[in-house]
Amino acid sequence: MAMATAILRRMPSFRRNALLQHLPKVSSSQPRRWMSVISLSDSDAVDKFRTIHSKSVMYFTASWCPPCKMIAPIYEDLSKQYPDVAFGKIDVDNNQDSAAEFHISAVPTFVFSKGKEAVNKFSGADKVQLEKLVKDL
């Protein structure tokens, strides 16, 4: 963010104004969230994600899984409703190490963490349970 601000400051005002016209307006009272759901491609990314965020949900999914496709837009919506919670997505076929680390035996599976401590976990595309556990974080 600071780097983008520095670049904008150095830009000639006519170009800066033209660029800023196309960016969405965000009021200072709104939390700024540039990415709703963060893709976690390897175990290092998962570790950093859990270290950086005090509250997080990790969604273990697979491209071939119909229930995963059904719950994905709901998960995305929740990420927008709860800006104080970080939402990550892990493809079990591409990140098998993380799937093994969290003992994932079915998809979709959701792991809820406070810091690096997993506090809850469930498998299935249950919208009500997902929302309740996000709220309880």
Automatic annotation (TrEMBL):
The keyword Secreted does not apply. Keywords: Disulfide bond. Residues 5-137 form the Thioredoxin domain. It holds the Pfam family Thioredoxin. It comes from the Eukaryota. PANTHER family: THIOREDOXIN-LIKE PROTEIN 1 (PTHR46115). This is Thioredoxin domain-containing protein. It comes from Discostella pseudostelligera.
